[in-house]
Specification:
- It is a single chain.
- With about 350 residues, this protein is of the alpha+beta class.
- It is built from twelve helices and twelve strands.
- A hairpin with a 5-residue loop joins β4 and β5.
- The protein is elongated and about 130 Å long.
Length: about 350
C-alpha cells in the first residue's frame, strides 16, 4: 500500500509539471512516464517498457547512447544532454534532459530519473540566429571584397575626421599601411594641421546630407571628385562619414586642354568646321559665323546639302560632300586641298 501511495503521489506531482518526467531501469527501459509525455503523441501504455533511446534522432543516437552508458555506469548526477526526439507523426522535438540516479541503501544505482524540457523553440531561434549571422558574414565578405577591389578611394571616418579605415586603393594612393593611417585625421595624412577649406566631410556633418564636390589638392597636385555620405545614428547625430574619392586629374587636364583648344579655335582668323562621319556639322568657329552668318546652333546636326541648298549649285554641294567623304579615308596627317 505504501508503494502504491508513493506511485500515486509521483503521478500527481509529475502530471502537474511542464517537464517530461520519466523513470527507467539501468538499460533505459521506461517504467514510468509523466502525463507531459503526451506532447509526443503516443499513448501512455505504448511508451511503458520501451527503451528511451528508441526515439532519439538517428544523427544524435551514437552520441546519446554513449552518454547514457557512461551515466548509467557512474554516479555522476546532474548530467545534461540536448538531442532530438521522435514524435508519433514522425516529426522531431528538441529536448534537454537532466539525469539523476535513484540508489538503494547500499548506494548502487537501481533506477534512472529523467527530467526533460522541450527546447524546440529555443533551438529554432538559435538556428535562425546562426543563419542570420552566416548571412551577415557573407554580406560583410562581399562588401569587403567590393571595397578592397574598388578603383575609387573609400574611407570611413569619425565625425572628428579620425580615420577608421581606407580600402586598398586608399592605402596604396597615400603610401600608408593600415597601421600608419588608423587613428590619424585624414588631413594629417597629407601633412596638414587642419582640414581643407572646402572639405566635403565637414559639410556633410554640418548638413547631415550627402555632399559632392570636385577639388584640387595642391600637396598631391591631383584633382579629385569627393562624395561624403553621413551615417546617422538613431539619435539623429552623425556617427560616421563614408567618403568616396576618385582621381579625376586626367579628365580635368583633358578638359583644360579642350578649353585652350576651343579658345584658340574661336580666336583664329581662319574658318574651321568639324563634322562627324555622316558629314553633319559638330562644331564651327566664329570666323565661319562671320562669313556665313550661321551660328553653331543653326548648323549642328545638318549637312552641307541642308545648309547651302538654294545658295550653292547642286554640283558645288556635291563637290563639297565628295571631298569630305574622301577625307574620311585619309590616314592621320594627310590632307585634301580644293578650291
Amino acid at each position: 500500500q505504501e508503494a502504491q501511495y508513493n506511485r500515486d503521489l509521483l503521478e500527481l506531482i509529475t502530471d502537474n509539471m511542464f517537464d517530461l518526467v520519466a523513470l527507467t531501469d539501468l538499460k533505459g527501459n521506461l517504467e514510468f512516464a509523466g502525463k507531459s509525455h503526451s506532447v509526443l503523441g503516443y499513448d501512455h501504455d505504448y511508451l511503458i517498457g520501451r527503451n528511451v533511446l528508441e526515439f532519439v534522432h538517428p544523427e544524435d543516437q551514437p552520441r546519446i547512447a554513449r552518454e547514457f552508458k557512461d551515466f548509467a555506469q557512474s554516479k555522476d548526477d546532474g548530467r545534461r544532454a540536448e538531442y532530438r526526439y521522435r514524435c508519433r507523426d514522425g516529426s522531431y522535438l528538441w529536448f534537454e534532459t537532466f539525469c539523476k540516479t535513484i540508489q538503494q541503501t547500499d548506494f548502487h544505482p537501481e533506477k534512472l530519473l529523467f527530467s526533460t524540457r522541450d527546447i524546440t523553440s529555443r533551438k529554432q531561434k538559435e538556428e535562425d540566429l546562426i543563419k542570420s549571422r552566416q548571412s551577415l558574414n557573407k554580406q560583410i565578405r562581399l562588401l569587403n571584397g567590393f571595397l578592397e577591389n574598388a578603383p575609387d578611394i573609400l574611407s570611413i571616418k569619425k565625425p572628428d575626421l579620425t580615420v577608421i579605415r581606407y580600402n586598398k586603393a586608399g592605402y596604396e594612393f597615400l603610401g600608408k599601411s593600415p597601421e600608419d593611417a588608423h587613428g590619424n585625421r585624414c588631413y594629417e595624412l597629407l601633412g596638414r594641421q587642419s582640414h581643407c577649406d572646402n572639405c566635403v566631410s565637414i559639410d556633410a556633418i554640418r548638413t547631415k546630407k550627402p555632399v559632392f564636390r570636385e577639388k584640387h589638392v595642391p600637396e598631391l597636385d591631383t584633382y579629385f571628385s569627393c562624395r561624403a555620405n553621413p551615417v546617422i545614428s538613431e539619435k539623429g547625430t552623425v556617427e560616421y562619414i563614408v567618403e568616396i574619392i576618385r582621381d579625376i586629374t586626367e579628365r580635368k587636364r583633358t578638359e583644360e586642354m579642350q578649353k585652350i583648344f576651343f579658345q584658340m579655335l574661336q580666336n583664329s582668323e581662319h574658318i574651321a568646321v568639324f563634322k562627324d562621319s555622316s558629314l553633319k556639322y559638330v562644331l564651327i568657329n566664329e570666323a565661319y559665323t562671320r562669313l556665313t552668318g550661321h551660328t553653331l546652333s543653326q548648323v549642328t546636326g545638318k549637312t552641307d546639302k541642308e545648309m547651302f541648298q538654294g545658295i550653292s549649285t547642286p554640283e558645288q554641294i556635291q563637290e563639297y560632300m565628295e571631298n569630305d567623304r574622301k577625307a574620311l579615308d585619309l590616314s592621320p596627317g594627310k590632307v585634301i586641298t580644293s578650291e
